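lol ok so funny story. i was supposed to be doing the assay writeup but got distracted and ended up predicting the structure for this chain instead. priorities right. anyway since i did it might as well share w the group, maybe its usefull for someone
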Amino acid sequence: MTRIEKALSILKQASRSGSRPGLERISELCALLGDPQDRFRAVHVAGTNGKGSFCAMLSSVLGAQGYGVGTFSSPVMLRYNDCIRLGGEPVSEDVFAGAVIKADKASAQMTDKPTEFELLTAAAFLIFAEQGCDFAVIECGMGGRGDSTNVLKAPVLSVITNVTLDHCAFLGDTVADIAAQKAGIIKAGRPVFLGRPDKEVFDVVKREADLKGSELYTPDEDILFRSENGFTYRGRELTLPLKGAYQAENLRNVLSCIELLRTAGVSISDDAVVQGIAAVRWEGRFERLWDDPPVIFDGAHNPDGMTALCESIRTAFPDTKPAVLIGVLSDKDYRLYAKKLCPLISQAFTITPDNPRALPAKKLAEALSSEGIPAGAYLSIGEGFEAAFGHCRESRLPLLVIGSLYLYKDIIAQIKNICK
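and the output, tada:
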């Protein structure tokens, strides 16, 4: 068995215990590894939506400044090692495998064994410490207070991009409950940024910040302006490769946080901002995968994400109703998705994501049909993609592939088949 095969076997075994929030196991594991999370400066990012794009943008800017930057994000997009990145690129198989094996070896001393995500978190911290990263931009997996990434003791900055309903079974049934979970990443005396300061959320986060003696900041509305070619920032043109109407909000949040980092003594030039934003890459967010017909993937998987996606559809296709290939998980509000999509799309092709929590394609098709959207269910992702792609090629319509990010890997495989 190769090292990478061994590492993947370890993670598969750990995945059987499911998701178990709490910091006891990760704290013990990190202590056994020498607390690698204390050996780099961290920006800790929670929120319902926008975390991945935020992390990608900030990491790219820090890298353009010349810092060694690690990024930890979820879920895995194409390969097991792309959740841990150095300089924007997935770590090598060898580095990834070595860290997972080392974390697993340390966990042999634990009575309560770590989960898969806890092993990945510890492996990421090990890699960032051993590779000498100046900064690590760390995305919460779920929530914040009980998320394994919250073992970080003193981040340079804590970020909450926004708070809306998602993962209610774990985080709570109300926005206030979920905000309280995400506010759990705030650390004593460390600044915190809230990207969308709705009053209910703001009050919860402010209460936690005051309790921790932390200064709370919100977006600088005057830091970013629209221009003919994109955006302007401090009199400079900014080109953002990431598409989707919602990325303007993410960009404003990143720029506001860059100002906070500068206040904390982090050197970041305007040139680094311009270069870093222009160079950013991030998969699965209104990403164009094919040109003829246009195929766009967006991982909108909760109500707020679907609202943002609908705005992107209106902006990108004001005179056309695209077709949609869609697959979601069963714990998502898929009936609401059908209501929101109804006026914007012409036809739906439903598929079942490769995930134990996936909603059957037939059930999703029934929900879409009940809202007046012509919808058909397909037995496999390949069959659904072939039907949707063929329909769009013949009718000259764009194809939107939306829903769970767990679809991304399979859709990329289908795109590659077109190229053969």
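The chain has a mean pLDDT of 93. Residues 214 and 296 are 41 Å apart (CA to CA).
back to the writeup now i swear
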